[in-house]
Write a structure and sequence with these properties.
The protein is mainly α. The chain starts with a helix and ends with a helix. A hairpin with a 4-residue loop joins strand 1 and strand 2. Helix 4 packs across helix 9 and helix 6 packs antiparallel against helix 9. The protein is 76% helix and 3% strand. Strands 1-2 form a two-stranded antiparallel ribbon.
Length: 302
């Protein structure tokens, strides 16, 4: 580990490349986390199948690319539509029956069971092998070639940020977005005012799965996927939302990019095999810190 730290100290351009790579792919994580925050804030549902929807989106892009010859970037609208429809189906069959449960662990266990089911189905359909859908867009050279950035990372960053901004504008200024925000604040009052709460919930969950699908399409182009890696994306999204707070759009972007950059650097220092462990350790630290602060605040108020 000391050796790798010395490399970063002696080669600041390499450290810069790790940070830039982390910031670029962090936008993808932020997009996925925004979907989780949307479903959590509006429906009070913590979706533990979040990562599996991401991986499914990646597999659809991979299949369309290698089986039908569609360029991976052009598959993104198709994936978003397929995952949106799948989200509506899952809402009607599973999620709608969980709404109103006072015990949050019931929804966690139900969505965790859904995640396991999706893992097994993806393994049976697509196989257990690690796959990628590299669009081969070349490399971008910065500072006379001392920093090399994959063009697909830049394109993925632009797509993720654009989708996030578009969704933010829709949520803030459209009537549909106003209905979602009203439902999130007070579902009963929104229903009295004529808002179809069930329709809002269904579309909210479907938007979440569509965002996961878009994120999965970008992930399979930038990295690799396999059926059992979804849990990492679920916990990464959960950590980003916890750190940023529900409804904090810019906070989710900053958290996603910052956590990704930190993960990149620590993954290089302690080894790529421990990179996922960094996510879980950060999640534990954040939860413990938040718990201690909340306890101290209660004691102060008492």
């Amino acid at each position: 580990m000391i050796t790798y730290l010395n490399i970063l100290i002696d080669s600041p351009e390499f450290l810069a490349q790790l940070i830039i790579n982390g910031l670029l792919v962090g936008a993808i994580f932020a997009l996925i986390a925004y979907g989780l925050a949307l479903a959590w804030g509006v429906m009070d549902i913590i979706n533990f199948a979040q990562g599996e929807f991401v991986i499914l989106g990646g597999y659809i892009t991979y299949t369309l690319f290698y089986q039908l010859g569609i360029h991976p970037i052009l598959t993104i609208p198709i994936v978003a539509l397929v995952l949106y429809v799948l989200g509506l189906i899952i809402y009607k069959t599973i999620i709608s029956r969980l709404l109103g449960e006072k015990d949050i662990f019931i929804t966690i266990l139900a969505t965790f069971g859904l995640a396991i089911l999706m893992q097994q189905l993806m393994q049976a359909i697509f196989g257990p092998d690690v796959v990628t859908a590299n669009p081969k867009l070349g490399m971008l050279k910065l500072f006379d070639g001392s920093i090399l950035i994959s063009n697909i990372q830049v394109v993925s960053f632009i797509i993720a940020v654009s989708v996030g901004i578009l969704l933010f504008v829709v949520m803030k200024y459209s009537r549909f977005g106003q209905a979602i925000r009203a439902t999130a604040q007070n579902p009963r009052a929104a229903g009295i005012l004529g808002i179809d709460i069930d329709k809002v919930y269904a579309n909210t969950f479907a938007i979440n799965t569509a965002l996961c699908g878009i994120g999965g399409s970008l992930v399979v182009m930038v990295w690799t996927i396999h059926p059992f890696i979804g849990l990492v994306y679920t916990f990464r999204s959960f950590m980003i939302v916890i750190l940023a707070g529900l409804g904090n759009f810019m906070g989710i972007i900053y958290s996603g990019m910052g956590i990704s950059a930190l993960e990149n650097v620590t993954g290089f220092v302690i080894g790529a095999e421990f990179q996922a462990a960094v996510i879980f350790c950060l999640l534990v630290i954040i939860l413990v810190t938040r718990s201690i602060r909340a306890r101290r605040k209660r004691q102060y108020l008492e």
